[in-house]
Amino acid sequence: MHFLKHSIRLISYPSLNIPSNLHPSAGTNKDSRKYIFGELTNVKRQKIVYCADIRELGGIINWKVLCTPKEGLVKGMEIIGDDIYAISFKDARNLKVVHTRMDHIDWKNAEIIIAEKPNLFLESITHCKDFLMATYGDGINTRLFKYNLKTKESSEVRLPYSGIVRIFCLDQTTNMCSSSITTWNKPYAEFDTDFTTDIFLPGKLNKQAIHALFFR
User: Fold this and answer.
1) Phi, psi dihedral angles at 11 (to 5 degrees)
2) In what order do the strands lie in the sheet with 35-41?
3) 190-203 tens-digit pLDDT
4) Model confidence at 1, in pLDDT bands (50, 70, 90)?
5) Does 215 score more than 50 pLDDT?
6) Which of 19, 31, 181, 195 would bridge 163 by S-S if both were Cys, CB 3.0 to 4.6 A apart?
7) How many whole angstroms separate alpha carbon 133 and alpha carbon 60?
8) pLDDT band for position 57 (50/70/90)?
9) Of the candidates 83, 72, 76, 94, which has an alpha carbon nearest to the alpha carbon of residue 31?
10) 56 alpha-carbon distance from chain centroid
11) How far apart are CA 97 and CA 61, in angstroms?
12) Over the stretch 77-96, which tens digit does the pLDDT of each residue have?
């Protein structure tokens, strides 16, 4: 979840009892425009997030708890409208993706939308218009899966070749994203990826390097 930062100071709310070893930040989320979000972070991985009605922006904000360390949420959280998708380690050593809603936050009974995968560790989640993407590591390479937000079906995305994959979705109004693959035997490469068709095209802004052999 990426905040659009505003001049909101969580530290100005003593009722939150923010410890001095936590860094507070707050802002809005372009994918969930009805709410303001606040987050406390430090070196620990468990998420601490608050939320409030965006109509309170500019006045006294009545912060509500979205999640605390006891919920076991780590790494990534995507909030789309009233839907919250988060990475959880509860009963999932390799992590899983769970879902609940802003209008009825219930992590105890959260829906598992992408179950824990044996021998694969969940690294990150992001989303485009119709899909939630999840990257997994096997200790060497990345495998990519997508979850259809409309049909609720999951599938693996076939990559052009093996390597470490990163997905960047800057415009969530489309299914076009940027992706990159890094591997030990090929140059770093960027792709324009259409997750409607799972087609990877050479990136327009960063052309793949060409190997050249020189003989003396």
Assistant:
1) -65, -15
2) 4-5, 23-28, 35-41, 48-53, 64-67
3) 999 999 999 999 98
4) low
5) no
6) 181
7) 36
8) confident
9) 83
10) 26
11) 30
12) 999 999 999 999 999 999 99
Measure the CA–CA gap between 50 and 213, rounded to whole angstroms. 56
Structure tokens at 190: 């960027």
What does the block give as tokens for 17?
């009892």
Tokens of 89: 């380690």
**14 is written with which tokens?**
């003593």
Please check the confidence at residue 211 and state whether its pLDDT lies above 70.
no
Which 3-state string (H, E, C) describes the chain? CCCEECCCCHHHCHHHCCCCCCEEEEEECCCCCCEEEEEEECCCCECEEEEEEHHHCCCCCCCEEEECHHHCEEEEEEEECCEEEEEECCCCCCCEEEEEECCECCHHHCEEEECCCCCCEEEEEEECCCEEEEEEECCCCEEEEEEECCCCCEEEECCCCCCEEEEECCCCCCCEEEEEEEECCEEEEEEEEECCCCEEEECCCCCCCCCCCCCC
Count, in order, helices (H) and strands (E) of the chain.
0, 17
| Tokens, residue 37 | 């979000």
